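Structure (tokenized):
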């Protein structure tokens, strides 16, 4: 196979699967990042984490490929293998860009801002619910009885 044929095949592949492929690869990174944020990997030794991340990336790539091909009705073993490897490669490329080109700092900045906003909204809603709960508790309790004094005095 000549280089032109290979290039044409690659271009046709991305023309067909382009944005879907990128979306699946990015979702794998987001899932892995979410698992990191919630501390799933904290108990693992730092040197072993990369192997776990690689395994999870591969698993998500294979799963994403299978789901995509089943949903589009084009599941064949050859296309499945090619798509899974391509998604894994895209996943690794996006992750490398994330780590090396300042995207990580931007994501942390945006993520922290979103987290603060979500916590603020949660606190406000919790306070509103507690206030409503207290109001309804006060309405259901009978008013305190004041002993009436004799009016004859």
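Design, position by position:
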């Amino acid at each position: 196979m000549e280089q032109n044929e290979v290039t044409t095949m690659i271009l046709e592949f991305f023309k067909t699967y382009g944005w879907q492929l990128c979306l699946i690869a990015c979702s794998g990174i987001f899932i892995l990042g979410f698992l990191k944020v919630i501390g799933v990997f904290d108990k693992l030794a730092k040197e072993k984490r990369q192997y776990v991340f690689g395994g999870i990336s591969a698993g998500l790539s294979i799963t994403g490929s299978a789901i995509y091909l089943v949903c589009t009705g084009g599941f064949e073993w050859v296309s499945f293998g090619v798509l899974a490897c391509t998604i894994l490669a895209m996943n690794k490329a996006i992750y490398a860009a994330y780590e090396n080109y300042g995207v990580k700092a931007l994501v942390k900045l945006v993520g922290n801002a979103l987290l603060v906003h979500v916590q603020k909204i949660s606190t406000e809603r919790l306070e509103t619910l507690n206030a409503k709960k207290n109001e309804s508790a006060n309405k259901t309790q009978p008013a305190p009885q004041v002993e009436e004094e004799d009016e004859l005095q």
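Reviewer-requested clarification: The two ends are 115 Å apart (CA to CA). The mean pLDDT is 75.
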